[in-house]
Amino acid sequence: MSGAHNCPQAISPLSEGAYVVSAMYRNSVIMNDIDIGKWRNTGKSVKNGAKSRILLGMGKIAVTAGSAEGAPVAMIHPTHCYPKSGLHNQLQVIRLCNPLRGRDHGETLSPRVCLRHYPRLRRCIPSGEYSEFSILSAPRYITHLLILAVVMWLAASCRHNPTSSDAGADDSVAELPLPALPAGLTQPEERAAYLLAHFWDDMDFNDCRLSLDTAFMEQNFANFAALFDYADSAAMAHGASVLLDKAATSGEAFDFLNAIIDKYLYDPESPMYNEEYYTHFLRALLAGNRLDDAGRERARYRLEAAMKNSRGTRAADFRYVMRGGGEEKLSEFCRDHEMTMLLFYDPDCENCKAMIERLRHAPLPPGTAILAIDAEDDRRQWERTCASLPAGWTVGYALDPILDNETYVLPAMPVIYLLDSRATVLAKDPRLP
Q: Are 159 and 139 in contact (CB under 8 A)?
């Protein structure tokens, strides 16, 4: 392969067993086979008749091709590029390089890592406008009224315990009745723990009319996950385990539920995205025996990634150059400020631009300093654009390859960390006023 298209050896698409071949677009799950002979092969040769799996969404883009499962793959150029507006907020994943040391056939790597090593793809695809996983096309948003109702119900006294007769005020989507609370539970954490443990008591996952109904399962999982805000870690872990154990009675329902869990808690664009909550499901999955080898590797990889720079740990240190000149370390910056808002951004990312504008006018706690870091690999672009960020911020360009080394795993930009003066992580992607 030419130098412009080399992946680092650790994630080489030409490693034996790396069989990762597709691009995925939101709101489309239509897969198609395209004869490899129609595409220009720039890597190793593959057998005649090999197929390249691509996804037909807004158009065709071939990324890689492989002859059969377990066989080496070859890089394929896209036959043409789409303008940025054409793929805006559409690309979901590129199954291109193998992050799992060549053992997991077809594992997905964050597109961001791959795009840095394939310049032509980078020119075609807007960075920061995708996420690693989202294949379901049903609405992902839950209503503000639902969240408000759950919050008010948890904070209220036990004067009224909803039963099945109370459910269905809005019968557009069926909802599981909330279990009746024991009279002795008065604290929100106690109530949330009980509800998490018994939320799915009336659910029969072998009834495919419900367990495979997208609207029903998404609505009820959203109700369930909203309770995590009021529970302690042990209650979250127990609730996740109970849910997965119940769903495991039906293989199809179990897989469908896990797709919904990924969609709501793992997709950075979900309003309920929360890595900390997601880790409880990952641990429960790894403790069970329902996953195949590939699924187990995927869950283990995601858990390891989520635990990096997690709440309560020391943020990994790195060097950066400042727009005014001079180098500094993250730990040195934190030491000089009571609180640091560390913002990872991409100059090309529209979501990042919107976040920067939001932070420009947001009231921040006293003693909070903003450190905005571009961790991408185009320093010239950073130099051209860094002056556009607010003058009161410290704006830097990461000198250490923190994304390639996965010191920080950032599946989508922007990402915000709140750090104290010792660089301890207080929160990741906090809810801003």
A: no
The side-by-side arrangement of strands in the sheet containing 368-374 is: 327-329, 319-322, 394-398, 368-374, 339-345, 415-420, 425-428
Residues facing residue 373 across a β-bridge: 344, 396
Tokens of 49: 């008749």
Cα angle, residue 242 at apex, residues 202 and 154 outer, rounded to 5°? 70
* Amino acid identity, position 242: V
Interatomic CA distance for residues 149 and 146, integer angstroms: 5
**pLDDT category, 104, cuts 50, 70, 90?**
very low
Q: For 370-408, how does the pLDDT look when each residue is reduced to its tens digit (9 = 90+)?
A: 999 999 889 999 999 999 999 999 999 999 999 888 899
CA torsion through residues 136, 141, 146, 148, sign: positive
The alpha carbons of the chain give a radius of gyration, in whole angstroms, of 23
String of b and e for 297-333 (b: at least 16 CB within 10 Å)? bbbbbbbebbeebeeeeebbebebbebeeeebebbeb
| Residue 224 tokens, joined | 């369930």
pLDDT value, residue 433: 65
Tell me which of 270 and 239 has the higher pLDDT: 239
Note whether 105 and 123 are within 8 A (CB).
no
Q: What is the CATH number of domain 319-428?
A: 3.40.30.10
Predicted TM-score (pTM) of this structure: 0.60
User: What percentage of the chain exceeds 70 in pLDDT?
Assistant: 60
- Rounded CA-CA distance 166/168 in Å is 7
CB 98 within 8 A of CB 109: yes
